[in-house]
Every structure is written in C-alpha cells, then in structure tokens.
Amino acid sequence: MTDRRFDTPYEKFLELGPGSLTDTELLAIIIRNGTRDEDAHELAMRILSAGDDEGRIIGLQKLSFDDLTAIKGIGKVKAMCIGCIVELSMRMAMQNKKKVLMLNNPESIADYFMEQVRHLEQENVLLLLVDTKCNLMKVVNLSKGSINASIVSVRDIYINAVGSKASGVILIHNHPSGDPTPSRNDIDITQKIRKAGEIMEIPLLDHIIIGDRRYVSLKQGGYV
To answer: CA-to-CA distance for 9 and 24, rounded, in angstroms?
Structure first.
C-alpha cells in the first residue's frame, strides 16, 4: 500500500478522520495558525512541551490562561479556545464516568474526580450531597485554600446539606503535593464533621483525599 503523505493536518483529518491525528496535529488544527517564524504544527509542539507532562496532551490541564498567553504566538483567543477544549474534554469524561459512579465505593469516587482536582495548585474542598439511595444530588465547591491548607466550615457543610435535603455528605479535597496522606488537621476536621453529622442525622459517609493518581479514604482508614 502506498504511504499517503499529507501536507497539513486538515488533509489528514478529511482523508482518515480525527482518530488518525497525533496530539500535536489535533492541537495544530485547534489553534489554526502559527507565527511568522513557525507553522501551527511547530507552535503546537511548543504548547504541549509547556504542559510539563512529557509533551503529552494531558499536560494542557496544567496550563492556566496566563500560562498559555505567555507562550509566544498564543493570544487571548487561542488561549480561550484551548481552555474550552480542555474543559469540554473533562466534562465529557466525567459524564461518562458518572454512569458508573458508585458513592459507596471510594475507588469509584476518586476515579470520577481525579482529573478534575489532581492538577490544581491549591487545595480545593468539594462537598458531595447524597440522597437516601446513595445517588449524587449536588457537588458544592466548598473552599479554595492556600497551597498548604484550606479552611472547611462545618456550619457551611450542614447549611448546604439541610438546604438540599441531603441524607449524607462526602468530602473530597486534593493535596497539591501529590501525596494524599492525611495530615493531623485532615483527621481532626474529619472527626469534627463526623460528630456534627451524627447530631444532625446527616452522616459523613467518607472523606477522600486525592493526590497525583493516588487517593486515601479516611473511612477505610477508620476515621469516619
């Protein structure tokens, strides 16, 4: 069979479909054009390298809007396009995972939220509100803290839980260091929330800490 060569990713897409394109070629089509000194393909390679994940497309999740616009050849419009593609891809992945999400299974919960939070440079705390059948009712972004610590208000947790008529709550937060080992503060606040949940009759079902492709369930650790 003749080795068919293509002058541009556009031609390759039209002939063979999007599945035939490399990460660099996909990104080149999204950004459309390069600079005076390089074409879109070369610019796409530089963008992927800036993601600091061995040049893989997953590294785009680590690039903020400011990171992207700091790259020569990337203006606000290109940066917005890339940001929208990353967000769209993440939402699609989460919708697919939601079909098999099991809130009584720490591994399933961690898998669902892993890509959403493991790249964040600050600690974020998510509150999952659960109904009587252990279905997910709502996700609340409870707090965004410093790079080392986040502030969790027990009062805010149960204001949200009561307002949504939740039957249980689950906490998720990330460790930017990548190590999900719970700190003394993580354990203390977990036990404080657990005791409040017993009084409110809205139990804390789990507190899951997410690191880089790793997680820890404080329920499995005996703290819930």
So the answer is: 9
